[in-house]
Amino acid sequence: YFAGKLVEPKKKIVFYVDSAFPEKWRGAVKEGIEYWNEAFEAAGFKNATEARDYPKNDPEFDPDDIRYSCIRYCVTPTANAMGPSYVDPRTGEILGADVIWYHNIVSLLHNWRFTQTAAVDPRVRSRVFADSVMYESMTYVAAHEVGHCLGLMHNMGASYSFTLDNLRDPAFTQKYGTTPSIMDYARNNFVAQPGDMERGVKLTPPAVGVYDIYAINWGYRLIPGADTMDQEKPVLDSWIRAKSGDKMYEFGAQQFMGMVDPTDQTEDLGNDHIKAADMSISNLKIIMKNLSQWALEPDCNYDPLDETYRAMVQQYMRHVGHVYPYIGGMVYKEIRQGHDDGNARTYIDKKQQKRAMDWLLVQARTSDWLAPSDLMLKWEDPYQWQERLQRSVVGCLLSSAKLYRINEGGKIDPSRNYTLEEYLDDAVKGIFAPSYSGKKLSAADRNMQSAAIAAMTKYSGLKPASSKGSSKSLTAAEEFDEMSLTADSPAIPCSFNHNHSLDDNADTSFYRILLGLPTMSETELQPIMASRLEDILSLYKSKIDSSDRATRDFYSYHIRALKSILEN
């Protein structure tokens, strides 16, 4: 081994595959398990992982016995999988691990492939995929979950190391897939455009990524002359430093209960979320034009098509959610004493925030392509996601927690970052742009402006003179929080560390919980928002003579309401 030869371990890492798996999927699960042999070869071991069927005539075998690591098949409608493991606290040795594979993950894999690649891949333009296509997707899930069992956490920053040009490059994607780590939630190549697949662009993640191979070597390679963990540490640290500056080998901590760092997100691809979203939305528009044909299920009611349509909306919302963290965002970086690593956090600059703001406002006003009336009338109950999206965008732009970070960033570097006053000027002008231009207000415009006035009123601390009844719709802030949490939540909420617990020692588990982030103080925020309400009142008074009745009525109503709020 120390001479550099591959050595077959006496005690392999064996996973037993549940006999309850349908025969046509069992091979995919086994292949996903044994993908990891490539990583272990980099650590000096050959045939280190092995997939076996459940023994048929072994009275000692029990899938509940910790000595047997199993991939267990659960026949439930849950669309999920997870990979918990069990660790000896004295040594860190992983004693055993299981992957819990819920049956209905098949529908989740279908929806991913369909919404992300149907515009470029004719093979997935159907309600039921060919077995060969589903086989590809299943190997990815098996390999990802086994990665947890081997001790790897989610690396949500991995995919950010690739450019969009990388993702459309046949040679690059054939070598690296869509991400340097399958422990990221980087799915299928939604950046690829029609014709890219024919050019050789790969649409799926790698078997195991270059980061995964590096991580297994770091964790499993024997170091000559090192008999203790303390003796290993200098060598292990030197390996990390050797990759410093190579983004493919950076680790991005998973964020929970919020999203502040746009470079460590779930379900994303590439290092330009806005451009990636535009490319994916272009593909989604192609799919929408063909949805009834490609997702056709003859003689069925429209429930299955409704499920596919909702998956389309969810994919679109993910892209919107990927842009939210740029507003009031920060990039985190791990730094260590004794090294010139820079700062632990860097605020997103004014240029990036303004670009994100403008893009979000466009999306809030131009999403009708995803809600064609001829399709919406096929369902008995209306699916009112557009109004919620509009309020959510407003909630994002006026979030008190985001305003706090914008204010902090402006104080630290006012030439590079937004000051709070500059930001609010741009945000208000963006939300109320049609009014400033004297244009007729669309339903989307009225919804967004109403949401903004309600948010500013709440933050101002002022109350209407009287209010009878209450709206059943969520506020802009609530819509933003709800959509953000939905976008942040992984499609597969599998284990994010090696033993599936939030209570781990900080030395072995690493993630960011963003619940309870600081917000603007009322002392600062209330007069700022009251002043903005006065600006809106003046704006509406100057535009009341609009030729459009709906716009005039809207202005008239809010003039009365704002007067009541501000004068009382």
Describe the protein's architecture and organization.
With 568 residues, the protein is of the alpha/beta class. The protein has a domain at 13-300 and 490-506. 47% of the residues lie in helices and 7% in strands. It has 22 helices and 10 strands. It has helices spanning 23-34, 37-42, 105-117, 131-149, 164-167, 170-176, 196-199, 210-220, 229-242, 273-289, 291-294, 303-323, 350-365, 373-376, 385-397, 400-412, 420-431, 433-436, 443-460, 476-488, 522-543, 549-567, and strands at residues 13-17, 49-53, 69-74, 81-82, 85-87, 94-102, 254-256, 330-332, 345-347, 511-513. Strands 1, 2, 3, 4, 5 and 6 form a 6-stranded mixed β-sheet that branches. The chain has a two-stranded parallel ribbon with strand order 7-10. Helix 13 packs parallel to helix 17. The relative contact order is 0.10.
Defining key terms:
two-stranded parallel sheet; 22 helices; globular
Condensed summary:
This protein is an alpha/beta fold and 568 residues long. It has 22 helices and ten strands. The protein has a domain of 305 residues.
